[in-house]
Amino acid sequence: MFVYNQALLMEGPVLGVIQAFVTGITGCICLAAGMQGWIGKTIKNPFRILLLAIAFLLVVPELITDIIGIVGVVVFALAYKSGLAVVKEDTAK
Q: Is the pLDDT of residue 92 over 60?
């Protein structure tokens, strides 16, 4: 990712470095959750695709893609909290 954004090497203005760090960490978490299909609970496939899209948006070092990615994270977090994004566990065994 540092090839796209030198701020990840802590070069440049402080706010740019902070933005790159936050979006980089968030993108890595979204990529891992999207690939594994699990973040505390099993995630439904459409939301896994959403997480992968968010991860790739956050890799691109543009402000607009970062904003779209963060909005996507908020949408996913709301869906996850409401139970819409997680697979219901079958308790009747």
A: no
The answer to whether residues 80 and 86 touch, using CB atoms and an 8 Å cutoff, is yes
Q: What are the start-end ranges of the E strands in 1-93?
A: none
How many C-beta atoms surround the C-beta of residue 86 within 10 A?
A: 18
Burial of 12 (0-12, 13-18, 19+ CB in 10 A): middle
Q: In sequence order, what are the residues at sequence separation of 6 or more whose Cβ sits closer than 8 angstroms to the Cβ of residue 31?
A: 51, 52, 55
pTM of the model: 0.83
Q: Which own/partner contact pairs does 7-13 have at CB distance under 8 Å and 24+ positions apart?
A: 7/61
52 near 11, Cβ under 8 Å?
no
Please provide residue 42's backbone torsions phi and psi, each rounded to the nearest 5 degrees.
-70, 135
Q: What are phi and psi of 43, to 5 degrees?
A: -100, 140
